[in-house]
Amino acid sequence: MKFSSYVTFWGIYSVWHRHAKVYQKTWLVNLVLPLSEPIIYLISFGYGLSPLVEKVSYGSKTIPYLQFLIPGLMGVSTLFQAFFEASYGSFIRLQLQKTWQGLLTAPLNFTEVFLGDWLWAATKGTIAGTSMGFFAVLFGFYPSWQLLISLPIIFLGSLLFAAAGLFTAGTVRTIDEVHAPVFLFIIPMFCLCGIYYPRDNLPAILAKIVNLLPLSLLVDLLRCFIALPPLWSLKLIGLLSWTLIFAILAWQKIYPKLFT
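The structure corresponding to this sequence follows.
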């Protein structure tokens, strides 16, 4: 196993492609289950809850509830797929299957393996978030041009939550310990970050804290077509900052497991 400062695109792609080939062998399970999630969300909220909550106030506008909800669901789909692939998937490859160690015996260095694994988890998050938007377009709930413009935001969110997942994979000692960040970090964001309701409804102090969480930043940027959030550039900087922080922490946690 080795570390080198010389990083190649081909090395990163080789790691990413290796994971993609494994994904293809179980493509039916890997594809159908994530795609079933947005369909269930759209049917349940689109036809079940939407008639009960017809309008919602967001920014200075009053908009249909589905128009408010769909960007939030895109953010949640991105969160779950990117984080779980990078946490559970990378932990298995790192600790149980020893895939990282095997890749490092090839003409690859740690940076290439790290970036390839990170980009693969981000790819799955991007697929999930885009699939959510695609089915929203298919059902006539979301304009296609908004989905196209949202793709860079979805990818950035995927990088963020994939980095958080890698940090988790490098920190926990057993796979059961992954449940801790899921229940202490992922589920609270899912419930509090304004997916299903405007965060203005929360108590003022709690709202200020929640506004800083990565899922809140992502969802606010995905809703920029409804109403451009105040200080949107700071939200983008916040999203980039969270991504950089988690990536550095993940690097610092995983590297010693392979070279000490």
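The radius of gyration is 19 Å.
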